[in-house]
Amino acid sequence: MRTTLVALLLTLTTTDQAQAETCTGRFLNPITDICWECVLPVMIDAPGVCVCPAPWPQYIRFGIVFSFWEPVWLVDVTRDPFCFTNLGMKIGAGFDAPAGRPRTSSGNRDKSAFYQAHIYENFFWSASFGSMISSACKMDYSGGANYSVEWMTEFDPLWLDDELAFILGAESALFANTVAQAACAADCVAASVGHPLDPLFWCAGCQGSLYPLGGNTSEQTGGVMASNLLAERLVAKMHRQLMAWDTTGWECGNTPMPIIKKSQYRTQITYPIPRAVVSCPAYGATEVPTAVGQEMPYIGEDFGYLIWRKRRCCVSN
């Protein structure tokens, strides 16, 4: 599933004008559309001094543990298959994938919705700071500077069908009860003040349940709520597929983590209206402050997000 953004953009199609008109979005401006204050705080983390393995002939290295936030991934949540909202482009894939189904669609009388989604590397960050981080932390930067497209749900049958999604999250059967779902109210409150409850891994705070790991939402109260939930689910899906790892547990390197650690992530909405002034809420925080003015006919029915990830690493010379 992983490919490079450069290779993907080479398949851009402009021959079908009607198809192109359905794709809404805007190319992300790295200066005005990214909340650079969200990198903070950059701080010396416990235990302060670190000792990590090193290649021959050094064997071990000493350093200082630093932690910071990095804007690693862009996520599109779109009605239109193969529409890259954060790039303002649509690719031609040679086949028709199921289109999204917002709650306001004709004939849709319930609160359910379905969106396609993509997650790919924030090439602005990797190109400018990726090699610097790799050098300071003495580890390979996640994704390098290859502009990787990590996942496209149009190629994923599990995203479309909740029963197939059960393959990736069979434990969801344990949380399909009133008690487990009621616990998510506590996660909503905690996440809204910046501290999501990692032990409640099945909860997406104020957005509801992270399960099933698919593109259907059953209780959509708005496009921002639904798209925020699906962006969080997609990152959780990446962890379940071991395509996203723990970057805060061991300062000497990343480790596999099949269950998402919510406190490791923040989200920032980038489309339709980027919130670029100290606006990167924790996973599961209420979407109300960022939802104001976002939804509008046509251009306000697809959404873009920037995923911020916390990293701890042992910095040495």
Provide the descriptors you would attach to this structure in a database record.
317 residues; alpha+beta; 7-stranded antiparallel sheet; two-stranded antiparallel sheet; 13 strands; globular
Distance between the termini: 36 Å
- Biggest sheet character: 7 strands, antiparallel
Shape by Cα distribution: globular
Question: Could you state the order of secondary-structure elements as H and E?
Answer: EHHEEEEEEHEHHHHEHEEEHE
Q: Low-confidence parts lasting 5 or more residues at pLDDT below 50?
A: 12-18
Query: How many strands appear in the DSSP assignment?
Result: 13
Indicate the mean pLDDT: 86
Compact description:
The chain is α+β, with helices and mostly antiparallel strands. The chain has helices spanning about 5-10, 15-20, 125-135, 155-160, 160-165, 180, 185-190, 225-240, 290; strands spanning about 5, 45-55, 60-80, 85, 90, 115, 115-120, 150, 215, 245, 255, 265-270, 305-315.
